[in-house]
Recover the amino acids of this structure.
Protein backbone atom coordinates (compact mmCIF):
# COMPACT_ATOMS: atom_id res chain seq x y z
CA UNK A 1 0.00 0.00 0.00
CA UNK A 2 1.09 3.56 -0.74
CA UNK A 3 -0.05 7.04 0.27
CA UNK A 4 0.53 9.13 -2.85
CA UNK A 5 3.21 11.22 -1.12
CA UNK A 6 6.11 11.17 -3.59
CA UNK A 7 9.50 10.41 -2.01
CA UNK A 8 11.76 11.01 -4.97
CA UNK A 9 11.92 11.75 -8.69
CA UNK A 10 13.84 9.03 -10.49
CA UNK A 11 15.32 9.02 -13.98
CA UNK A 12 15.10 6.19 -16.52
CA UNK A 13 18.50 4.82 -17.54
CA UNK A 14 17.39 1.54 -19.12
CA UNK A 15 14.39 0.39 -21.15
CA UNK A 16 14.56 -3.18 -22.42
CA UNK A 17 11.40 -4.15 -24.30
CA UNK A 18 10.40 -7.61 -25.44
CA UNK A 19 6.94 -7.48 -26.98
CA UNK A 20 4.70 -6.29 -24.11
CA UNK A 21 7.17 -6.74 -21.28
CA UNK A 22 9.76 -4.19 -20.16
CA UNK A 23 12.75 -4.26 -17.86
CA UNK A 24 13.03 -0.72 -16.48
CA UNK A 25 16.21 0.65 -14.95
CA UNK A 26 15.79 3.70 -12.73
CA UNK A 27 18.30 5.97 -11.02
CA UNK A 28 17.16 7.53 -7.74
CA UNK A 29 18.24 10.85 -6.25
CA UNK A 30 17.24 10.90 -2.59
CA UNK A 31 16.12 7.37 -1.76
CA UNK A 32 18.51 5.16 0.19
CA UNK A 33 18.31 1.90 -1.72
CA UNK A 34 20.69 0.25 0.77
CA UNK A 35 17.71 -0.13 3.10
CA UNK A 36 15.44 -1.50 0.35
CA UNK A 37 15.38 -5.26 -0.16
CA UNK A 38 15.16 -7.16 -3.42
CA UNK A 39 11.50 -8.09 -3.85
CA UNK A 40 10.26 -4.89 -2.21
CA UNK A 41 7.43 -2.93 -3.76
CA UNK A 42 7.91 0.54 -5.19
CA UNK A 43 5.42 2.77 -7.00
CA UNK A 44 6.74 4.13 -10.30
CA UNK A 45 4.39 6.80 -11.67
CA UNK A 46 1.78 5.26 -9.40
CA UNK A 47 2.32 1.69 -10.63
CA UNK A 48 3.26 -0.90 -8.03
CA UNK A 49 6.39 -2.68 -9.27
CA UNK A 50 8.82 -5.10 -7.66
CA UNK A 51 12.52 -4.33 -7.31
CA UNK A 52 14.31 -7.31 -8.91
CA UNK A 53 17.87 -5.97 -8.60
CA UNK A 54 19.68 -2.91 -7.27
CA UNK A 55 23.17 -1.49 -7.23
CA UNK A 56 24.18 1.82 -5.70
CA UNK A 57 21.57 4.42 -6.59
CA UNK A 58 19.99 2.30 -9.31
CA UNK A 59 17.33 -0.40 -9.38
CA UNK A 60 15.61 -2.56 -11.98
CA UNK A 61 11.93 -3.55 -12.10
CA UNK A 62 9.89 -5.67 -14.52
CA UNK A 63 6.75 -4.44 -16.26
CA UNK A 64 4.35 -7.26 -17.20
CA UNK A 65 1.99 -7.20 -20.23
CA UNK A 66 -1.12 -6.08 -18.30
CA UNK A 67 0.80 -3.13 -16.86
CA UNK A 68 2.23 -2.38 -20.31
CA UNK A 69 -1.29 -2.14 -21.75
CA UNK A 70 -3.01 -0.20 -18.96
CA UNK A 71 -0.40 2.37 -17.84
CA UNK A 72 1.90 4.98 -19.33
CA UNK A 73 5.05 3.00 -18.48
CA UNK A 74 5.15 1.68 -22.05
CA UNK A 75 5.81 5.26 -23.21
CA UNK A 76 8.92 5.77 -21.08
CA UNK A 77 12.25 6.45 -22.76
CA UNK A 78 15.80 7.01 -21.53
CA UNK A 79 16.16 10.12 -19.30
CA UNK A 80 12.42 10.43 -18.61
CA UNK A 81 11.63 11.36 -15.02
CA UNK A 82 9.26 9.26 -12.89
CA UNK A 83 7.62 9.66 -9.48
CA UNK A 84 8.80 7.18 -6.85
CA UNK A 85 7.28 6.04 -3.56
CA UNK A 86 8.21 3.01 -1.50
CA UNK A 87 5.49 0.93 0.11
CA UNK A 88 4.18 2.29 3.41
CA UNK A 89 5.85 0.53 6.38
CA UNK A 90 3.63 -0.80 9.17
CA UNK A 91 4.84 1.94 11.53
CA UNK A 92 4.82 4.64 8.85
CA UNK A 93 2.97 7.95 8.97
CA UNK A 94 -0.13 8.03 6.77
CA UNK A 95 -0.44 11.45 5.13
CA UNK A 96 -2.05 11.15 1.67
CA UNK A 97 -4.86 8.71 0.89
CA UNK A 98 -4.97 4.95 0.34
CA UNK A 99 -3.19 4.21 -2.94
CA UNK A 100 -2.75 0.59 -4.05
CA UNK A 101 -0.55 1.15 -7.07
CA UNK A 102 -3.16 -0.50 -9.31
CA UNK A 103 -3.78 1.93 -12.15
CA UNK A 104 -7.36 2.00 -13.44
CA UNK A 105 -6.76 3.79 -16.70
CA UNK A 106 -4.73 6.49 -18.41
CA UNK A 107 -5.96 9.87 -19.57
CA UNK A 108 -4.56 13.02 -21.16
CA UNK A 109 -4.01 16.61 -20.05
CA UNK A 110 -6.32 18.98 -21.91
CA UNK A 111 -5.43 22.32 -20.28
CA UNK A 112 -2.96 24.01 -17.93
CA UNK A 113 -3.61 27.33 -16.19
CA UNK A 114 -1.69 29.43 -13.68
CA UNK A 115 -3.83 30.55 -10.72
CA UNK A 116 -1.51 32.76 -8.70
CA UNK A 117 0.96 30.34 -7.02
CA UNK A 118 -0.96 27.23 -8.10
CA UNK A 119 -1.07 25.41 -11.41
CA UNK A 120 -4.53 24.12 -12.31
CA UNK A 121 -4.39 21.09 -14.61
CA UNK A 122 -7.46 19.81 -16.46
CA UNK A 123 -7.77 16.18 -17.60
CA UNK A 124 -10.19 14.31 -19.81
CA UNK A 125 -12.56 12.20 -17.70
CA UNK A 126 -12.48 8.56 -18.88
CA UNK A 127 -16.01 7.30 -19.48
CA UNK A 128 -15.45 4.20 -17.32
CA UNK A 129 -14.43 6.33 -14.31
CA UNK A 130 -17.10 9.05 -14.40
CA UNK A 131 -18.85 7.83 -11.24
CA UNK A 132 -15.55 7.48 -9.36
CA UNK A 133 -14.21 10.98 -10.04
CA UNK A 134 -16.04 13.48 -7.85
CA UNK A 135 -15.48 17.08 -6.81
CA UNK A 136 -13.40 17.28 -3.61
CA UNK A 137 -12.64 13.57 -3.83
CA UNK A 138 -9.18 12.00 -3.85
CA UNK A 139 -7.33 10.65 -6.87
CA UNK A 140 -3.79 9.46 -7.61
CA UNK A 141 -2.31 10.89 -10.81
CA UNK A 142 1.04 9.34 -11.75
CA UNK A 143 1.13 8.24 -8.11
CA UNK A 144 0.53 11.70 -6.60
CA UNK A 145 -2.25 12.00 -4.03
CA UNK A 146 -4.38 14.94 -5.16
CA UNK A 147 -7.76 16.50 -4.46
CA UNK A 148 -10.16 16.96 -7.35
CA UNK A 149 -11.04 20.66 -7.51
CA UNK A 150 -13.91 20.25 -9.97
CA UNK A 151 -15.33 17.36 -11.96
CA UNK A 152 -17.96 16.81 -14.62
CA UNK A 153 -18.67 14.10 -17.17
CA UNK A 154 -16.13 15.50 -19.64
CA UNK A 155 -13.20 16.78 -17.57
CA UNK A 156 -11.82 17.15 -14.07
CA UNK A 157 -9.34 19.58 -12.52
CA UNK A 158 -6.66 19.42 -9.84
CA UNK A 159 -4.49 22.14 -8.35
CA UNK A 160 -0.75 21.90 -7.72
CA UNK A 161 0.64 23.97 -4.87
CA UNK A 162 4.29 25.10 -5.15
CA UNK A 163 5.49 22.15 -3.03
CA UNK A 164 3.80 19.63 -5.34
CA UNK A 165 5.21 21.45 -8.36
CA UNK A 166 8.73 20.88 -7.04
CA UNK A 167 8.43 17.39 -5.54
CA UNK A 168 6.77 15.50 -8.42
CA UNK A 169 6.74 15.42 -12.21
CA UNK A 170 3.20 16.58 -12.96
CA UNK A 171 3.99 20.31 -13.14
CA UNK A 172 6.32 19.64 -16.08
CA UNK A 173 3.70 17.71 -18.08
CA UNK A 174 2.22 19.33 -21.17
CA UNK A 175 -1.18 19.33 -22.86
CA UNK A 176 -1.61 15.96 -24.57
CA UNK A 177 0.69 14.07 -22.19
CA UNK A 178 -0.55 10.74 -20.87
CA UNK A 179 -0.93 10.15 -17.11
CA UNK A 180 -1.91 7.20 -14.90
CA UNK A 181 -5.11 7.38 -12.86
CA UNK A 182 -6.07 5.44 -9.74
CA UNK A 183 -9.39 6.42 -8.20
CA UNK A 184 -10.14 6.20 -4.48
CA UNK A 185 -10.46 2.57 -3.34
CA UNK A 186 -13.00 3.56 -0.67
CA UNK A 187 -15.26 4.98 -3.36
CA UNK A 188 -14.94 1.76 -5.34
CA UNK A 189 -16.04 -0.34 -2.38
CA UNK A 190 -19.01 1.95 -1.75
CA UNK A 191 -20.04 1.69 -5.41
CA UNK A 192 -19.74 -2.10 -5.35
CA UNK A 193 -21.78 -2.29 -2.15
CA UNK A 194 -24.53 -0.10 -3.61
CA UNK A 195 -24.66 -2.20 -6.77
CA UNK A 196 -24.85 -5.44 -4.77
CA UNK A 197 -27.55 -3.99 -2.51
CA UNK A 198 -29.59 -2.77 -5.49
CA UNK A 199 -29.24 -6.13 -7.24
CA UNK A 200 -30.28 -8.01 -4.10
CA UNK A 201 -33.28 -5.74 -3.64
CA UNK A 202 -34.32 -6.31 -7.25
CA UNK A 203 -34.06 -10.09 -6.89
CA UNK A 204 -36.05 -9.94 -3.67
CA UNK A 205 -38.95 -8.16 -5.36
CA UNK A 206 -39.32 -10.71 -8.16
Amino acid sequence: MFTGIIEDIGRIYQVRRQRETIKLGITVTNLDLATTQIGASIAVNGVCLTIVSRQGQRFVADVMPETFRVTNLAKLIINDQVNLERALPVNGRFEGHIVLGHVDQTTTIVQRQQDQSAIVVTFKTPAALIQQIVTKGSIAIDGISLTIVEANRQTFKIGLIPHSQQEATLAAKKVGNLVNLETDILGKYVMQHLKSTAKGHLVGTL
About this structure: The chain is about 15% helix and 40% strand. The CA atoms of residues 165 and 171 lie 5 Å apart. The first strand starts at residue 8 and ends at 18. The mean pLDDT is 92.
